[in-house]
Amino acid sequence: MVSDQINHYISSLIKSRNPLLTEMEEYARIHDVPIMDIISMEAMLQILSLAGTTKVLEIGTAIGYSAMRMAERLPDCEIVSVERDKTRYEIAKEYVSMSDLEKRITLIHGDALETIDQIKALHSFDCLFIDAAKGQYKRFFELYSPLVEKGGLIISDNVLFKGIVASEGKVAKGLRTMVVNLRSYNEMLMSNEQYDTTFYPIGDGIAISKKK
Fold first, then answer.
1. Is 157 annotated as a binding-site member?
2. Quaternary state and partners of this protein (predicted)?
3. Is 18 labelled a binding residue?
4. What's the chain's average pLDDT?
5. pTM
């Protein structure tokens, strides 16, 4: 993983966000809401911009921060985002309503393992962004990767989980199942012949998979 010193330096170079996004970052910090770290977010936004992404399916809305960052950076992009936690979903709705991005962000309340039929009705996507329950990544991939268009991207956040996934040391009991599942997911990505995958050791680890 990249050192804290390098992360701090890169973070210091990133432009300030607008006041609403800064407020969301502070809310997430105070309330321990897991939003994407700033360096990983900037990297993902650059990749989506270069890819000309126009329709994203996000699994894991949290408070709507990633969805709003994507909509702001990509003016021609629509985002559909699924969140199972009712409280976070309502907070996301409030934040989105306070922005000028509401027409391009669709929020869905529900468990992504159960909303497949609802999302299928919205047709295909050119990016699937997975940032939800770490132990369910493989299931999310199985359910929603068929909705990704040829040449589209699947972006998986937290695939190294604080470096623990790559560690050869003993894993704490409460994390073992999740770590085993993430390792299995990462191996599946690399062996899947329908995708070209690259791992980036920034933030909590990102996997970028392009559909052939």
1. yes
2. Homodimer.
3. no
4. 94
5. 0.93
